[in-house]
Amino acid sequence: MKRLEGHVALVTGGSRGIGAAVAIRLAEEGADVALTYERNAERAGQVVKQVEALGRRALAIRADSADPAAVRAAVDETAATLGRLDILVNNAAVFPMGPLEELELGLLDRTLAVNVRAPLLAAQAAVRHMTEGGRIIGIGSNVAERVVFPGLALYAASKTAQVGMVKGLARELGPRGITVNLVHPGPTDTDANPAEGPFAETVNGFTALGRYAEPAEIAATVAYLAGPDGRYVTGAAISVDGGFAA
């Protein structure tokens, strides 16, 4: 059963990792999918082909999430090209790491621009196209719940800000029948954070399940929130972290 048949989704940062898995899972559920990418057109094109192979329409949009105009334009292009917009998944993010004393102002500004401002701007643009039943889903982080390594203060701050954003938007958009939620992935096996990486054994030790997630496991929760079974969930931050925050 295609639970998202006739729906259109936009996944920011959808060319790889969790974003790509989300794009593909939503297509499997029947949605047409647009995705944004910053640099790697080839990777974005591969995801487009995978979506199209599932019989769905797909669109790749080059957009730097630090650019407000590009964020808004990506939302509007999705609605114009695919005919509507029902689901927004704010996945694009940067991952700064380093000692507090070494955090440069430019890095701080870009992190907040991509991880905090862009999701809010995308939501602002998206609700102009959404009707009742719309879904806005953010991809947060386990470090919003538990910071176990030094050097993550800026990243944790940016992801924790999304918790308040989601709660505020859920209150504001609830009367319009639009739900807003956040998914906190734990350590997930991606190019940027491979399960066989040098820190994997240590990271695994912080989870209750003792392993990294597969991107598809995060995407499954996003699909639930995007689908009809998630219609009464809003303002929630759901941890899919293998017990990292337990």
Characterize the structure shown.
It is a single chain. The chain has 246 residues and is an alpha/beta fold. It has a single domain, classed as Rossmann fold (3-Layer(aba) Sandwich), CATH 3.40.50. Helix content is 41%, strand content 14%. It contains seven helices and seven strands, in the order E-H-E-H-E-H-E-H-E-H-E-H-H-E. The protein has a seven-stranded parallel beta sheet with strand order 3-2-1-4-5-6-7, sandwiched between helices. The radius of gyration is 17 Å and the shape is globular. The chain starts with 7 loop residues before the first strand and ends in a 6-residue tail after the last strand.
How are the elements arranged and paired?
Elements: E1 8-11, H1 17-28, E2 32-37, H2 41-53, E3 58-62, H3 68-82, E4 87-90, H4 105-126, E5 135-139, H5 153-173, E6 179-185, H6 200-205, H7 215-226, E7 237-240
Parallel strand pairs: 1-2, 1-4, 2-3, 4-5, 5-6, 6-7
Helix pairs in contact: 1-2, 1-7, 3-4, 4-5
